[in-house]
Each structure stands twice: as C-alpha cells, then as structure tokens.
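A quick word before the example. In earlier lectures we treated sequence and structure as two separate objects. From today on, think of them as two lines of the same record. Here is isopentenyl-diphosphate Delta-isomerase written that way.
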Amino acid sequence: MSEQECTAFKGHDEVQIQLMQEECIVVDNDDKPLRPGSKKECHLMENISKGLLHRAFSIFLFNSENKLLLQQRAMEKITFPGYWTNTVCSHPLWLPNELIEENALGVRVAAQRKLNHELGVAFEEAKVDQFKFMTKIHYLSPSVEDPQWGEHEIDHILIIKTNVNVHAVPNEVMDHKYVSKEELKEMIKQSDENQIKLTPWFKLIALNHLDKWWDNLENLDPLVEPSTIIHRY
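And the structure line, produced from the sequence above:
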C-alpha cells in the first residue's frame, strides 16, 4: 500500500478498506460509462475536484403499510458513518451483468445484490423485476467527518414495494427502521437542528422528490423519467 493510501485509510475499518478495491463505473455528465475506477479513486475529493464522476443507485423500499425502510450507516463506513439514509445507497460495479443499460437492468441487478449484502434481504423477497427505475440525480458532497472523502455521483433512483425480512450486517448497518411520511418529516426537522444526521443525497431527495413518489406508489409509471438527469449541485 502506498504512503498516500496509508494516509487516506488511517483509522478506518479493514473490511471497508477492502471494499474500496471494488471497481465502480466512471461516467461522463450524460451517465455514459467510460471506464472502471476503484471505489477509493472515485471517492477521494482530490479526484472529485477534478471532475471524476461515477454511477450510483439509491433504493427506497416501502412495505405494505407504505412505510419507508431507512438504515443508519455503521460507524465503520468510510463516508458518512452513523448517518441515517434511505434503504440502501451503493454502486453498480464494472461487471457484465451490472453494466447492462437496457431498462436499467444492470443497476437493478446491483440493487438486489446490495440489499442482500447490507440488510440481508433474500433475493426472492426483492426480485430484480420489482425495482422501479424512476430517474437520475447528479449531486456532489464531501464527507464532513473526513473531508478527504466524498461523493460525486449520478444516482439512479429505484423504488420497490415489498415486505422483507431484514438481517442487517453490523459492519454495514448499525440500525434500521420503517417510517411514515410524518415521521420522516420529523427526522428532517431534527437534522436541521443538528439532533441527528441524514446523508446529503437522502435529504436532497426527500426534500425535492420523494413526496410525489410516496403519494403514488400504486401508479408510479406516469412519474418515471428514465432519460432525465436532474443536476443538484
């Protein structure tokens, strides 16, 4: 490991450091895949400041009571440890089955994989075809606790309504809960008062987009914008 890598990873969890070797999908501003890039490369602010951009996804999982599943990121996470966020936020990898563009299939395959990896949700409880791809959001945010790290992503928004059994992986998730729309609004208020922490992408989506999706979970098709990239940074 180079001196730079040792400095960047100083004090961080060994499991999370190993995950930084995964190859994300580096994209241009139109979300066109360019090349693989390690998770480490994609999340260092020195690279982000030069314009490095990668593909991501955010899952919003609702149960039969129309409550949204949230997770609190483990303290072992390198970026935004201890923050509350949407069900799962992660990245498709530079793999043949996660690079499939048609109907956002690659992203949906990755979403199923990470829902299992982080929350222990069985594949049969959240099938690839159940994920509804809504739109893309382009955002940038440094990590407050360790500002050498950050996020600069074109985030593919996925919604799924299903009942699942959660078996959270402690190294990934320290807590989880279902919330109603009113309970989420209270969490946003608490974050404004610095009582709790919400990830910047989750708060951005919750404040600007989530209500219309939440109100139309039984008929999302008219709200789908597959070719749209919403720039919010």
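Notice the following. Residues 161 and 217 are 8 Å apart (CA to CA). We will return to this example when we discuss secondary structure assignment.
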